[in-house]
Amino acid sequence: MKLPSRPQDKIIIALDVPDTDGALRLLDSLGEAPSLCKIGLELFTAEGPNVVKAIKSRGSAVFLDLKFHDIPNTVAHAVRSAAGLGVAMTTLHASGGPVMMEAAAKAALKEGGDLLLLAVTVLTSMDAEQLASTGIDVDPETQVLRLAGLAHQSGIGGIVCSPKEIGTARASFGEGLRIVTPGVRPSWAAAGDQKRVMTPQDAVQAGADWLVIGRPITAADQPKEAYARVIAELS
Ligand code: C5P
């Protein structure tokens, strides 16, 4: 997938709504169609491939965030199905291991054309204690870098990481790795439940290629204005 050049192409709008109607209303509230929209587990589980078609028909590319984690054969087939839906990006868990990731990367190359696979490293809901309880006795940041490295070596195009890890990931893996980050908050927006936040400009400055933004835009009193304001701040 080509790197975004215009500021508005760096923004992925998170469609964190339960159904297609809600997603379309959200798009209406933004005025112009975003370059990219993220469909996650809630919306996809409820609506299936039709919601992907509905969003694409509005002129937005789709980031299908289903975080695949299974045996290599199953994940490779899931990637093939995602490619068949014509999505631009999809996610898998790096903790599925290198064989799984290589199978996924091969499937994307064969079937997906331009499909960008993104590895999720350590979920931000996991702290050192949670990790230790699963048998991983290193701090989360060390584990993030370890899994990001594995993903990179396995032919996965990019990673999803928190703003906190953008700098180290970029420094460790260079420009060849695509970086997508959530946890982005303009200075004028409420942080909400996001803890380690960064402004859109700082996240791009630190090396993020795309920013996933939900509530600062979608839950704003004037979503269209909030969207335009973030784009202006990135310009
Ligand atoms: O509303 P907000 O801007 O916080 O939305 C961010 C989006 O990114 C949501 O879809 C959320 O699930 C996702 N996300 C996140 N933090 C992570 C991974 C994903 O906020 N570590």
Structural class: alpha/beta
User: What's the tally of helices?
Assistant: 11
CATH superfamily: Aldolase class I
How are strands sequenced across the largest beta sheet? Answer: 1-2-3-4-5-6-7-8
Assign the CATH class: Alpha Beta
Q: Architecture, according to CATH?
A: Alpha-Beta Barrel
Strand content: 15-25%
Low-confidence stretches: none
Number of strands: 8
Assembly state: single chain
- Shape by Cα distribution: globular
Report, as a whole number of angstroms, the end-to-end distance: 21 Å
Secondary-structure element order, N to C = EHEHHEHEHEHHEHEHEHH
Identify every distinct bound molecule in the structure, by name, code or SMILES: cytidine-5'-monophosphate
Biggest sheet, in brief? Answer: 8 strands, parallel, barrel
Q: What is the number of independent domains?
A: 1
CATH topology: TIM Barrel
- Radius of gyration based on Cα positions: 17 Å
Structural account:
By secondary structure, the protein is an alpha/beta fold. It has one domain: Aldolase class I (TIM Barrel), CATH 3.20.20.70. Strands 1-2-3-4-5-6-7-8 form an eight-stranded parallel barrel, surrounded by seven helices. Strand 3, helix 4 and strand 4 form a beta-alpha-beta unit. The longest helix has 14 residues. The chain starts with 10 loop residues before the first strand and ends with a helix. Bound molecules: cytidine-5'-monophosphate. Cytidine-5'-monophosphate binds next to strand 8 and helix 10. The site of cytidine-5'-monophosphate (C5P) has 14 residues, from strand 8 and helix 10.
